[in-house]
Amino acid sequence: MDRYFWNIEGPQADGVACVMCGADFLKSKITSVAVGRNPEDESSVRACKAPCAAALAADAERMAREMWTAVGLESTEGPDGDTFGVDGHFGSLLRDLKTLAGTEALLTTSHDMTTIRFLLSLTARHAETAMMRARLVLAQAKETDADGADGGE
């Protein structure tokens, strides 16, 4: 997740307490999910799966709808709805894969631990987004195949 949570510290910044309600995940058996990053060190921060993460998701959806409305679009697919175009999910997937390839090359030559930590965090972020985009593109490709099969009959 690329959402940054500013003005957090202590257990919340370390990812062991909810960024919303402050619940301590080490002391209580609360299911937590990653909801963003600490901008200070790019580490993952977490929230209670229910209700805090659900509230964050609802807020993110509301903000996305407002932004699409502000630019005059009704769809959440993007300006042209083209999944396989350069500006669609496929193009973004290709850019994530290029970043991963470049990061691999840098990791093989780097000896500085600070640089290695940064490259590993970059790898984790782009690997996660590449996985989600690949699944989305695959699902939409299957839909396209199914529509094509139905349309030919």
Description:
The protein is mainly α and 153 residues long. It has 4 helices and 2 strands; from the N terminus they run αββααα. The chain has helices at residues 11-14, 49-70, 89-109, 113-151, and strands at 32-37, 44-48. The chain has a two-stranded antiparallel ribbon with strand order 1-2. Helix 3 (89-109) runs antiparallel to helix 4 (113-151). The longest helix is centred in the last third of the chain and has 39 residues, at 113-151. Mean pLDDT is 81; it is low at 76-80.
Instruction: Tally the helices.
Output: 4
Report the end-to-end length measured between terminal Cα atoms.
42 Å
Read across the widest sheet, the strand sequence of neighbours is 1-2
- Kindly state the percentage of residues in helix: 55-70%
Q: In angstroms, what is the radius of gyration?
A: 19 Å
